[in-house]
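Page 47, continued from p. 46.
Same chain as before, 702 aa.
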Amino acid sequence: MRLIAVLCLATMLFAAQASGQAGRPVELEAQLSMASGVERARILARLVDAYKLDKPAQAITYGTAALDQLAKTPDSAAAVVTLSELGWAYMQLSRFDEAVAAADSARKLAARTGQKRGEARAISNLGTIAQRRGDPERAVALFNQALVIQRALGDNLAIANSLNNIGFVHSTDLADYTRALGEHLEALKIRESIGDSTTISLSLNNIGIVYGRLRQYAYASKYFDRALAIRRALGNQTRISGTLSNLGDMYLEGGNPARALVVYQEALNIRERSGDPAAISSSHRNMALTYLALNQLPKAEEALTRAEQTGGGLEDKSLLVGNLLARSALDRTQGDAVSAEEKSRHALEVARGMNSRELVRRSLEALSQAQEASKSHLAALRTLQKAKAVSDSIYDDQTSRRIAELEGRYAEERRGHELAKLRRDQAESDLRAERQASQRNLAVAIAMVLGLLGVIMYRRRVEHAEISDRLSITDPLTDAKNRRYVEQTIGADIAVSARRHLHATQRSMQAEEADLVFLMLDVDHFKQVNDKYGHAAGDVVLTEIVQVLRATSRQSDVVIRWGGEEFLVIGRFTERSLAAMHAERLRQAVEARVIRIDGSAPIQVTCSVGYAAYPFHIREPDSESWMQVVALADHAAYIAKRAGRNRCAGLVANSDTSQRNGEAITPMSVQKWIADGTLTLEDDISRGKALRLTPVNPRAIV
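Result:
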């Protein structure tokens, strides 16, 4: 029986493989020798589409032959496809005038002959060409025009493609990351429902770009890795090189140039085989910036010269700006501040003409660095202020929260889709088992079906648990966020905090609304509530406390159930001087809440609150991680409990310099640091006097 099953599986795999190869370019080319007339033109049109990415020159050859054939035996549908995809092939080779002419001819022919899908496709290709030429606003307008047609047709795959294109421009050129992520997640949802691996990988790659721009590298890496795995399996070389290049950008910006060099080199090797001059130029520039980061200046000079030679004369404005900024950085490193300033000014002029906020920001930062290198400190400061204004318009206070909410909604929807798919799979498996049972001996069939169902149900339960664990960011009891939510979103908040402190330091000012305040709340005597009223009453108490914390905190703050009866409130972008007041306000609100339990007398509970601010040491912001600051807030809450409960306590650095020397944060070490002046224990303002710190019993510490 096992042998029969193996043979059947092998037969199915062979059939699937054979059917999957029927439309491959090699099969289409084999059909050309036997085709003539309109059929030959249609095969040639399909070959243009097949080769436009990896072999654009070959695609143009087939496209020219197709148009020649169509002049003799007209077929409007084949002509629209040929012209539209010829436009893409010309774009791959940076022959933009020919690309626009071909795609626009396709658009006009499709409109004249009533081919709405072909018209939308041609308009979309015109949008991509506009984006490559450095006109992002026209690109978005064209993509939206195509999207209107596609929505009217109900063409979900095309709708997802247009959403993807709009999101790509919003992320790479217009730096509107919230809109970009929303568009990419909507596109990914549609593509996952269709099950098209090629387009799913495209969405994953572009979502990785958004997170990379936001410097959330863990998220970016997750999406890039998923995209790369799919693309390697599909064998699409152009797409593989694109994801590799994105990974290289992430590694370089994240401070790992050695690893960036490896993936950049692989991307360059692929692109040199495809013959796309813009992509080749971009890869050489990436290599140059990586060599510059590794302080290998001769190699950086050689790679950048190749980038400039390959990209020279192309109408790709984004490529021009990137190469100019790379040259500015290299000139500045080599001591030629005048040339560095000249190149960055040129880049700024082009970027402003494109209305690209991201490129304007990068150009202003490069210009400020060049001015500083030439000792023009006042000019450098003014340029940096302009860069800050652009940066603030991109990374506003609510960006990270909106990004997290979008990701959370996508995760919940994806979980629902996956669970629904699990149920469908289960139903289909049951049906197959029932059909098999009718064809076999009853006893054998029952044994086999029970075994099969047991395995399937076990696998489904395991997969369901893994999906729930991976995607859930909300505590099911209280509806508060959980630790996973914090781990997913805290990186963006820390980046904003660091940037604000850095800007304040550069301008010799005190940072405003730049701190993250972590407030740890522990419900006092919570075990007594459970023992006296029951665990159901305890659940009500925890739920009510979350409501109190939300009502008492700002809308921008986050309430997290940290575990058991512990809650963490993150005061986002506030000032550490207000931490004690915030803690006391939360303590009073919990104490004042009257909680009513069905059939029982009203309950009132209190809490002990500990707090600490991030960065803990302003001059050494990296000396403590956010988790270590949370640990300090937790120890402050522990101190408040030991001092009598229903109190607030805070731990603050006694200087701007860390003196912990890597020692672990424990109750004993905290007590020692308070004693030697490394830390200051703030007064409990609700009592109007300092807390009395009782000695810690090491044996009592678990």
